[in-house]
Specification:
Elements (H helix, E strand, L loop, with lengths): L1 H16 L3 E3 L2 H4 L19 E7 L9 E3 L2 H14 L12 E11 L7 E13 L5 E13 L7 H32 L2 H7 L1
Parallel strand pairs: 1-3, 2-4
Antiparallel strand pairs: 4-5, 5-6
């Protein structure tokens, strides 16, 4: 009898949460710790990156919708750049403009474990000339199990936020890595080959 009651309660919970819509949090999508903790030198882009157009915020899932707005993506990117000392000071000139477009967010679906996959394109250009210095698509994934978060709706939201956070963190790491490649002299490049 207890098993029937528990099964009924579980079924009622699933039915009640079907069509549930969750809003993501910009704070949980931002790379709030240093994306490149081992970097000891400044990036070429230190305090020179402005946030440009940010698009692609969308709803995910079939029954379970996790909503990511363009505004939340913009603030997550901005906060991440600021934390990692890349955000340009207001009023600064001759920097770089970084655009972010979330191409797709896939998942999560109901289950004990949930996974969200994202594909995000980043384009960065010199502000003055418009010359593109970076055009890269970053694919990321985040998986959480029942042991990470017991509530399925929270687990779904956290997987989407985690996948976006990983994408932004990878972007920032790559911006720091680009300094070495850009600052190599012609002789250094020939020796590297």
């Amino acid at each position: 009898m207890v098993a029937i009651i528990l099964a009924g309660a579980l079924f009622a919970g699933v039915v009640a949460l079907s069509g549930c819509t969750l809003q993501t949090s910009q704070e949980d999508m931002a790379a709030t710790t240093l994306a490149c903790p081992n970097c000891t030198t400044e990036s070429r882009y230190s305090r020179a990156v402005k946030v440009g157009k940010v698009t692609g915020g969308a709803s995910t899932g079939f029954d379970l919708k996790v909503v990511v707005s363009d505004e939340e993506l913009r603030y997550a990117l901005r906060d991440s750049l600021e934390t990692n000392d890349l955000l340009a000071d207001s009023g600064s000139e001759n920097g770089f403009v970084l655009h972010m477009h979330v191409i797709s967010i896939v998942g999560p679906e109901w289950g004990w474990g949930m996974t969200a996959d994202t594909s995000t394109r980043y384009i960065m250009q010199e502000e003055e000339s418009g010359h593109i210095v970076l055009d890269e698509t970053i694919d990321t994934s985040e998986s959480l199990s029942l042991s990470d978060e017991i509530l399925g709706v929270e687990r779904a939201r956290l997987t989407v936020e985690g996948a976006i956070k990983k994408s932004i963190t990878l972007l920032i790491s790559r911006l720091y890595e680009r300094k070495a490649a850009i600052s190599m002299t012609s002789a250094d490049r020939l020796r590297a080959v």
